[in-house]
UniProtKB/TrEMBL annotation:
Positions contributing to substrate binding: D19, D99
Annotated residues for binding of Mg(2+): D8, D10, D179
Keyword check for Flavoprotein: no
Swiss-Prot/TrEMBL keywords: Hydrolase, Magnesium, Metal-binding
Protein name, UniProt field: PHOP2 phosphatase
């Protein structure tokens, strides 16, 4: 009996958006209007690439970025939840699927010593160039019209489950924990026995309830959370059963 926990990162594990938090490193902690207004829907990764160039041009170094990123607060109750999952790893496989990037997530998990809680992290690959600039790439290519062009979380989840099946691992239940619009696509892939846990008051919860109002509800059960303690209470019930 094994459960798969799938976490989004921004506004789910951490209580902020890691990509907008990095702007604190910019001169006067803000971006020039031209750069801010250059974002085009569905092309966030390209936009962040330009932000990183701007930071690099202004002499912002890797260690300053890392110091800034590791001050992001975790969501209420999240430290307790991740501690609980870490103590029960024989029951839970745990992955992150996020539109952030490998460098940010790495820094934050390592600083809080939560690296060992997660089996895999699926996010946009990032690295520092020889000139000290942070660069970010698309996670993958996909053909899903609903998702931003760099990442379809449904595709990530499906490929992960297929790979696990080849290794002889199947899950009693998938628990999907997220908040954003790009979490809807993987939630719609979940089956009747699975559970979606959207964060209260965020886009994912609103989109799921819109579907229900339009009489095309998601197949899985839905349990809304406002503190990660709510998630921990549910997981404790799961492993008692």
């Amino acid at each position: 009996m094994k459960f798969l926990l799938v976490f989004d990162f921004d506004h789910t594990i951490i209580d902020e958006n890691s990509d907008t938090w990095i702007v604190r490193c910019a001169p006067e902690r803000k971006l020039p209007n031209g750069l801010r207004n250059s974002y085009q829907p569905g092309h966030w990764t390209e936009y962040m690439g330009r932000v990183f160039v701007y930071l690099g041009d202004n002499g912002v170094k890797e260690d300053e970025m890392e110091r800034t990123m590791t001050t992001i607060p975790f969501t209420a109750g999240m430290i307790d939840l991740l501690g609980f999952i870490g103590k029960n790893k024989e029951l839970f496989d745990c992955i992150i699927v996020s539109d952030s990037n490998t460098v940010f997530i790495d820094w934050i998990l390592k600083a809080a010593d939560f690296h060992n809680v997660f089996d895999e992290v699926f996010t946009n690959p990032a690295a520092f160039s020889s000139t000290g600039y942070l660069t970010v790439q698309h996670f993958h290519a996909h053909h899903c019209a609903k998702c931003p062009k760099n990442l379809c979380k449904r595709k990530v989840l499906k490929e992960f489950l297929d790979k696990q099946l080849e290794r002889g691992v199947s899950y009693t239940q998938i628990v999907y924990i997220g908040d954003g619009g790009n979490d809807l696509c993987p939630v719609m892939f979940l089956k009747k026995n699975d559970i979606a846990m959207p964060r209260q008051g965020y886009t994912l919860e609103k989109k799921i309830s819109q579907l229900a109002q339009n009489l095309s509800p998601v197949q899985c059960s839905v349990l809304v959370w406002s503190s990660a303690i709510d998630i921990m209470s549910y997981l404790k019930l799961l492993i008692k059963e």
